[in-house]
Design goal:
Elements (H helix, E strand, L loop, with lengths): L2 H41 L8 E8 L2 E9 L4 H8 L19 E4 L5 E4 L13 E3 L6 E2 L5 E3 L2 H8 L9 H17 L2 E2 L3 H9 L9 H14 L4 E2 L5 H12 L5
Parallel strand pairs: 1-5, 8-9
Antiparallel strand pairs: 1-2, 3-4, 3-5, 6-7
Helix pairs in contact: 3-6, 5-6, 6-7
Length: 249
């Protein structure tokens, strides 16, 4: 065989081998592709959507919702993420510190505190609540024109430091005052009643004394919350403490 014939033969053999290899690779890829796709699909199963429901309520006298929310959504998240009300504070997240409480207005005219971090938004469907944003008086532009009696008294006594727990204390004091307006107490009971009303609220800055003094002073100075015939010594003590702290000037 001549050199030319040998070269042609080698080239033809190489070309044939290349064609055979390509065909084999194509066949292998075709055979494995479905298995790979199947395996990938099996690794990412479809996830069912979380159950949800429409929730609407009246907040600070305004109708809010309905919003389609997860059934497990807590009220604190409903207020923050859907109603745009961020004044309620998320503290412990376990219903212990009471920084998150709102006021629930009941059909019989009474009001109670509710912990928004452990109570689902769905519980308040159709109900009326008040948050810290609803206490002060506002003008048409939404600007604050006057504080509530509780808020004003807290300012006078400088009851707060960081202020994180203040919304909860404002709501607690408001519920107390509304209860005493319906059921006045003797003046010698004020100390214990105020302590009981605020006892579940935790202050990170340990400013409890000023909160208590402010609420106690407000109860004693608001007509109709206390009965006659109680001891006047408590009121005198409040006046002395107020003067010593600079609030009686």
């Amino acid at each position: 065989m001549s050199t030319s014939e040998m070269s042609t033969s080698v080239t033809s053999a190489a070309a044939a081998a290349s064609t055979t290899a390509s065909a084999a690779a194509s066949t292998t890829a075709s055979a494995t592709a479905p298995a790979t796709a199947t395996a990938t699909q099996g690794a990412a199963p479809a996830v069912a959507a979380a159950p949800s429901r429409a929730v609407s309520m009246t907040i600070n006298g305004q109708a809010v919702g309905p919003f389609q929310v997860p059934e497990t959504l807590m009220l604190i998240d409903y207020l923050h993420e859907y109603a745009g009300l961020t004044g309620s504070r998320l503290g412990c997240g376990q219903g212990i510190c009471h920084a998150c409480v709102v006021i629930l207005d009941q059909p019989d005219g009474t009001s109670v505190e509710m912990r928004s971090c452990i109570t689902g938004a769905a519980y308040f469907q159709g109900k009326k609540i008040r948050t810290i944003e609803g206490h002060a008086q506002r003008n048409a532009a939404g600007e604050v024109t006057a504080l509530s009696p509780v808020q004003q008294k807290f300012l006078e006594f400088y009851s707060f430091q960081c202020g994180y727990c203040t919304p909860g204390f404002v709501n607690a004091a408001t519920v107390l005052l509304e209860r005493l307006a319906r059921q006045p107490i003797a003046k010698d009971q004020v100390e214990s009643v105020v302590t009981q009303a605020l006892d579940s609220h935790i202050c990170r800055c340990t400013g409890y004394v000023r909160y208590h003094r402010a609420v106690r002073d407000l109860v004693l100075s608001t007509p109709g919350l206390t009965k006659d015939g109680g001891q006047d010594k408590l009121k005198q003590d409040v006046a002395v403490e107020s003067k010593e702290s600079g609030h009686g000037k």
